[in-house]
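Archive transcription. Copying these from loose printouts into the bound notebook so they stop getting lost. Printout 1 of 2:
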Amino acid sequence: MRLEVRVGSAAVELRSLQGWLRADPEVRRSATVEVQGGVPGPGEMGTGLDVLQLVTGNGWSAASFVLAVVAWRQSRPQRPRVEIRRGDTVVVLMDCSQEEIERAVRALDAADPDEGGGR
């Protein structure tokens, strides 16, 4: 299964999140984490590095992943908007309230794992 994460507009933030996730034992155990150029939308020019891609295996936990992203976001001086895409499901973390976190976990758990090039 593949997830894509977009963070604000700075590639440096993606690199920071990549390092954070690679250091998290739960994420490291169940996913590979790579920064890549994303597919530009209609009328958009692509940038060099604008998406963090996670390819997950059977041990993937939406809750562990979302909590790792929330912890990273809270460590940032400017707390960027984080968009997570799994297939056709898109989750946005803005304030990381308990309700937003629970909604994100439910949505990612419920997303069809075969959408978007699952593994």
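Printout 2 of 2:
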Amino acid sequence: MRLLPWTGADGKPCYLSTDDPHSLLSHLADDIEAAQLASAEQVLAGARAVLGDPKAGERAVRFALTRAVESLGDVLRVAVSRGEGDAR
């Protein structure tokens, strides 16, 4: 069973049950995971820039933190999916 990088309409995790890593759904999940990881790199760079700017206001810091939390959730889901994290 593979944890997919998205949730169902009810917010619960979605799983893929197949032994074929070359299936269409497996490739879609791989592409989405790659996009999530690339996005996380950009969010990290942006958050670092905001935190390094002594003139950054509360809105900028809150936005950077919100995006960082979203990206961290995505990255943790990818890690769990790849067997490198805990599902907690």
